[in-house]
Amino acid sequence: MANGFKSGGRTKGTPNKSTAELKSIAQEHTDKAIEVLVSIMTESENDQAKIAAAKELLDRGYGKSSQYIEATIHTHEDALDELK
């Protein structure tokens, strides 16, 4: 991206047609997918499968949990101060 101008592709905000089509197809199967996840969570003998299914259901119902990141940010001024 030279000089801050986009040089090709879709205009900002224009939906990606292939992604939109895939999303639409996936949404047609939402009810069945939820049924499968509930079935795995309640009927599986495998605890890892139960946990994974429960997590997927909770993520969809309430959103994914926040992830906190701790970072130390150094500015150019910090670097110059270290050189003194």
Question: How would you describe what is shown here?
Answer:
It is a single chain. With 84 residues, the chain is mostly helical. It has a domain at 30-64. It has helices at 17-28, 30-43, 47-62, 76-83. α2 (30-43) packs across α3. The longest helix is centred in the middle third of the chain and has 16 residues, at 47-62. The model has no long low-confidence stretch (mean pLDDT 84).
Structural topology:
Layout: H1 17-28, H2 30-43, H3 47-62, H4 76-83
Based on the model shown, name its key terms.
84 residues, mainly alpha
Brief digest:
By secondary structure, the protein is an all-alpha fold. It is built from 4 helices and no strands. The longest helix has 16 residues, at 47-62.
Proportion of residues in β-strands = under 5%
Largest sheet: none
Instruction: Give the low-pLDDT segments.
Output: none
Mean pLDDT figure: 84
Name the structural class.
Answer: mainly alpha
Shape: flat
Radius of gyration: 23 Å
What is the H-and-E element order?
Answer: HHHH
Task: Report the strand count.
Answer: 0
Share of helix, binned: 55-70%
Count up the helices: 4
Our measurement of the CA-to-CA distance between the termini, rounded to an integer number of angstroms, reads 36 Å
